[in-house]
Amino acid sequence: MPLAITLALGACSSPPEKPQDQVAAIQAARQGGYVPIAGPVQGWDATWTLGQQPLEVSWLAPAGEHGAAPLILYLPGLGESARSGELWRRAWAEAGYAVLSIQMPQQGRALYSSGDAQAGAFRKLAQDNYSQASLMQRIALAQAALAEAAKRGRAGDPALAGVDWDNWMVAGFDLGAQTAAALAGERGNGQARLSALRPKAAILLSPYVESSYDTDRFTHIDVPVLSISGPRDKDPFSWIPSPQQRQVLWRGLQVNDSYLLTLIEADHALLGGELPRPMGGPGHGGERGGPGGGMARPPAFNEGGGEGRRGGPGEGPGGRHGGRKPGAGGGIREHFDPRQAAYVQAVTLAFLDSRLRHAAAASQWLDQNATTWLGHGAWLEKKNP
């Protein structure tokens, strides 16, 4: 049996040791799904200063002559850098999309060097960063970053060439999903739209729904949405009491041709779009001990969603377990199922092609073939007229 197939079938027992094996396992798991033609990509990382605010920028786009590529604005989770979410961003770029990822440094990896993080005040960090004031700052920066990128691209900057700046959508994970939903129109009753930007669609990975939610907020979203979550999508800080709360956005959403992808085995970290680190490899037990998962799991977090006993430095649930500490992104995942990552790649690519390229084959696959291909590992629902 080929190595990639063996990895795909045996993924639930142990993770592949090497990133190239993990990628091969995901590719094998995508067979029979929606697989558009893929090509090489190119990219770069930079820091821009917009106004007085430094901004991490990471760019991935098709390499060579490809025509005007549609644009995806990607917004990472809390505690992640602009380079996070590469499993999704690279798959999108390989399929012909330009992907601009942005993150404020203070909400990226530098978050873990803050006084609150060092003091273990993780709920305060979540409260501050999910606040309305923080949201408005992120919306303003998203607008400024898009304007700056388009200005440079239209002025002939070769690093930003070959993009259709008017044909774009937004995608976000965790904290980024809160921003993406606001750009898509989410707001309170009587509140004006929070941004003049109007993406053509939105992908929300682990959508944010605050505890004192008002379902009516989501009725104001006015573009098609693909919402992705599941029963194991637990907030590492219990800021959102249960994964089921994320479903509230879907229940309030009124826009036709929107979809909900429910992943049975995907945890919060996988939705962040990063591969697990090999056991004993670089980063094991360190700052990036596992895949990016939005806010990293605090030392006192346990798998039941509540607080366990507080162990010593670097301890995980119930004491010393895997050398976890703030910034570990949830620690090493003992189980990695490449099928769950394959589901996200296939469904998001079909959604992108249907919304930005108006590809009939992509819409047909979502509506007629996706459910059979997903099998028992996930299910897909659609908002119909």
Automatic annotation (TrEMBL):
Residues 274-334 are annotated as: Disordered. Residues 280-295, 313-331 have a biased composition (Gly residues). InterPro entries: AB_hydrolase_fold. This is Alpha/beta hydrolase. It comes from Pseudomonas solani.
